[in-house]
Design brief:
CATH architecture of the largest domain: 3-Layer(aba) Sandwich
Structural class: alpha/beta
Distance between the termini: 22 Å
CATH superfamily of the largest domain: Glycogen Phosphorylase B
Number of strands: 15
Radius of gyration: 22 Å
Strand content: 15-25%
CATH class of the largest domain: Alpha Beta
Length: 395
């Protein structure tokens, strides 16, 4: 498909995640859409000491994505925030001559300031079950139902989430986490060069990602206590939990948030990568992006039994799954003893080759293109394309 044939030249993305936060699904996809569209990435409002509401827009030099941040006066009520943001968004449309456009939602709460807009195509890319996250807005479920009614297409961040949403819309497609293999494969050759890590003793057990209510801090604490010679490296921002609750031991190293470009050099200094997720409501439907990233870096991976990780990687023998502290310790120990052989690495790489963000973007674009076809021509179109990991699962 020629992506330049897509009728709307603008894509407006409404996101609960900020562009400058961890580089994940929204950033990967919007960066690719920016090759063929003007992409406006609208973040949730920030509150500052300003006399009047204002739009702050900055064009990302590397990707071309226009990052839009509504700035509202400190102390603005939720109702007034929605009204002010809607006015700012309309102003954005006028000043940038946005006509026909694709609306892309990561959060149903953005309907509070965008429901009067009339997109050519509306996409709901449902990354997570946000209603199960800590501090979820009470209106989120109601807004999501409205977003389902407005959307032409619904994409999900994993198969388990697809199964939970497929009965709520006629065109739901699963798109589990993809990976930039070329980027993370640098970890296999770049050496142990991260300044705040390279002096730490080995072996090193590493995690990179958001540190929030989804992380099993008791498991981290138990690993550190029972294997004092192992050094646990935790990379990522701490959000929605009190930093004071993080276990503190001489062999646990909280290194904070790192830029996406730096992750391979940190992973290059690890011996095993872990996914120490708690088993709770917030992890019920997750499909962690870090799974293929760890594998692309050439690391053995040990995870708690997250459903999508088990079905997509565990059942194929690519990730070790353990549900108990004892099992986790034993399996990490085994991973430390036996390096990944050439055949195992070739099998990992062959599977990762099917998980390209470029392929995901192309498949999504094809579905959008179908929605843009005139009704009279739809009967001439081939059946719905087989979406990666979807197959017979497509609704």
């Amino acid at each position: 498909m020629n992506h330049t044939d897509l009728a709307p030249k603008d894509l407006v993305c409404f996101s609960h995640l900020r562009w400058g936060f961890v580089f994940q699904r929204p950033q990967h996809l919007m960066s690719r859409f920016a090759k063929t569209h003007r992409v406006f990435f609208i973040e949730e409002p920030v509150y500052e000491e300003v006399a009047a509401p204002v739009i702050r827009m900055k064009r990302c030099e590397k990707t071309g994505v226009r990052v839009v941040t509504p700035v509202l006066p400190t102390g603005t009520s939720p109702a007034d925030s929605a009204q002010m943001t809607e006015i700012l968004v309309r102003k954005l449309f006028v000043e940038n001559n946005i006509g026909d456009f694709i609306a892309w939602y990561y959060t149903p709460m953005a309907l509070n300031y965008s429901r009067t807009l009339q997109p050519a195509v509306c996409v709901y890319d449902c990354m997570d079950e946000l209603s199960l996250f800590r501090n979820a807005p009470p209106a989120l479920r109601k807004n999501e139902q409205e977003l389902f009614e407005r959307s032409n297409l619904v994409f999900t961040g994993g198969v388990s989430l697809f199964e939970a949403k497929r009965r709520q819309h006629s065109r739901v497609y699963p798109f589990p986490s993809s990976v930039d293999c070329e980027h993370f494969r640098k970890a296999r050759t770049c050496g142990d060069v991260a300044e705040d890590q390279k002096s730490l003793p080995r072996p090193r057990i590493g995690y990179a990602g958001v540190i929030d209510e989804r992380i099993d801090l008791d498991l981290i604490r138990a690993i550190a206590e029972r294997r004092p010679d192992w050094h646990i490296v935790m990379i990522g921002p701490v959000v929605k939990i009190d930093p004071a609750t993080l276990p503190q031991r001489d062999n646990i190293h909280w290194l904070g948030m790192k830029d996406y470009s730096q992750l391979p050099e940190y992973m290059a200094g690890w011996d095993v990568a872990i996914m120490p997720f708690a088993l709770n409501d917030s992890t019920r439907y997750i499909s962690p992006t870090k799974t293929p990233e760890y594998l692309a870096a050439g690391l053995p991976v040990v995870s708690t039994p997250i459903r999508d990780v088990e079905s997509q990687y565990g059942d194929k023998g690519l990730v070790r799954i353990e549900s108990t502290v004892e099992g986790f310790l034993r399996t990490v120990e085994q991973a430390l003893m036996y390096e990944m052989g050439m055949k195992a690495r070739e099998r990992v790489d062959a599977y990762l080759a099917t998980l390209s963000w470029d392929d995901t973007w192309r498949a999504m674009s094809q579905l959008i293109e179908q929605e843009l076809q005139p009704v009279s021509t739809l009967v001439k179109q081939p059946p719905k394309p087989a979406v990666r990991h979807a197959g017979a699962l497509s609704a």
